[in-house]
Write a structure and sequence with these properties.
By secondary structure, the chain is an alpha+beta fold. 36% of the residues lie in helices and 20% in strands. Its EC number is 5.2.1.8.
């Protein structure tokens, strides 16, 4: 492989593109969202309840019951919900470490297991 081809082969890992669904809970660093501006529901949700809800949504997507984007638009506590959960392209050290590590570990088209960050619990779909 030429040095130009080798450089190009590694370039794909410099940035990734992903969508996610975030469910916030009582342990989240910011207890409000576009769906819950005063944080009443979020503050009353345990991490276990948030993870169980997110697991059910993940199962629904994997079973083909709904698209990732549709579920994100309806259920995600992140403002990216209006874009079907799309976070756009990002590189290393731009997201919280557990989120970054999980995204880079996925193949394009794969959906993560439940990932915990300071923001809440997420599932991630790597799109590029």
């Amino acid at each position: 492989m030429s040095s130009a081809a080798a450089a190009g082969a590694g370039a794909g890992e410099e940035t990734v593109r992903a969508s996610h669904i975030l469910i916030k809970h009582e342990g989240s660093r910011r207890k409000s969202s576009w769906k819950d501006p005063e944080g009443r529901v979020i503050s009353a949700t345990t991490r276990a309840d948030a993870a169980a809800r997110l697991g059910g949504l993940r199962d629904q997507i994997l079973a083909g019951g709904a698209s990732f984007a549709d579920i994100a638009a309806q259920h995600s506590d992140c403002s990216s919900a209006r874009r079907g959960g799309d976070l756009g392209t990002f590189g290393r050290r731009q997201m919280q470490k557990p989120f970054e590590d999980a995204t880079y570990a996925l193949k394009v088209g794969e959906i993560s297991d439940i990932i915990d960050t300071e923001s809440g619990v997420h599932i991630i779909l790597r799109t590029a």
